[in-house]
User: What shape does this take?
Amino acid sequence: MGFATNSTSIDILSGPDSLVISDRDNHASIAVGRKFSGASIDTFVHNSAEDLERVIRRNIARGNINKARRLSSKGEPVPYVPWKKILIVVEGTYSMSGEFPPLADIVRIKKKYGCYLYVDEAHSIGALGHTGRGICDKLGIDFSDVDILMGTFTKSFGSIGGYIAGDSKTIDNLRKYSLSSIISEPLCSTAAQQVLSALQVLRYTKEGEARIMSLHENAIYFRKHLSDMGFVTLGEDDSPVIPLMLYNPAKIAPMSRLLLERNIAAVVVGFPATPLLEARVRFCISAAHTKQDLDYILTHLDDIGDIVGCKYRKKEKLQEGKREKKSEDGSSDPPLSAESELTDCDDDPIIRDLSEEDKLDVVLKEKRSGGVQSECENEDGIDCDMVKKDREIEGFVLNVGK
Assistant: This one.
């Protein structure tokens, strides 16, 4: 599968004289492959091309300091030893955030400093681009600019195993030395045929084009409605990987149980796969999902979100966004008069006993001072007080555990 493909390939593609520079949010299988390789390891800030260039420049300036120290004698200056190879490793779609890498900038940096580029397309192959050919197809990157493309057959292709795509010398080297090639059994004929059939549907039929379009539409539809309900999601609009943020790890178990009771299959994720206070539930959208399927999930999620308490977006912010959208379309609702809002005052026990004149004065003051962002609300409309409360609860849970 994808884990074995990464962990048994990166170690062959690098070595003790190499440097592997990895995005901090890369999958665990990439980390395992790096460790097996014996190469020096460095990381850069997630999706930051600027930090990637800074890391490359720093390591080129220092050289292979570990090898230099081994070569130098005691009392002598440490010589400069250049790297034999610098390998940059990123994902096409990040499995825990649904984000795409800034691939155009990474390719530019890779060419500038003579590095190699390895892209893990486990979640992007068969899902992104007009033809389903992955992140390069999606972002308009020349495939020849990426040295190694890795993918798995367990997701879009509905089979087992994984693959490495590269030039003939690279593939021949992997066939000779990779443990996945030497020790493991090859794909059975039925699994291989499943992969070939899926490829033929994607590349040569109208059905394949329709499925890719349906996948993109489903992802956009599902993500938009989650946001409208007040949930916080990560990732690109059309990414089929949609993480819904829980933040508090104590909410992982109830969220998982409530989803299971409603026959909804989703993956809940916590530490160490994510930072301790960034727990989430991950939804992976399929082209086979119908609007009825998605509406069923959304209806139950609206209820579950209230029970678990994970709607972190302010309702006022959401309503403001809807009003702005209506105004852009030229279909905004006419403003309500102050008198028409007096009826809402009867629900307030303090205001309802006031005279009509005093009520009107209160409403007018509120209208004049309205629209000011609360101190506990950030620019994205996320209720920071709610997140803070969850983290305080989490701190109590951790203290009890100790």
Residues 206-229 form the longest helix (24 residues). The first strand starts at residue 18 and ends at 23. The chain has three domains: 2-202, 208-308, 337-401.
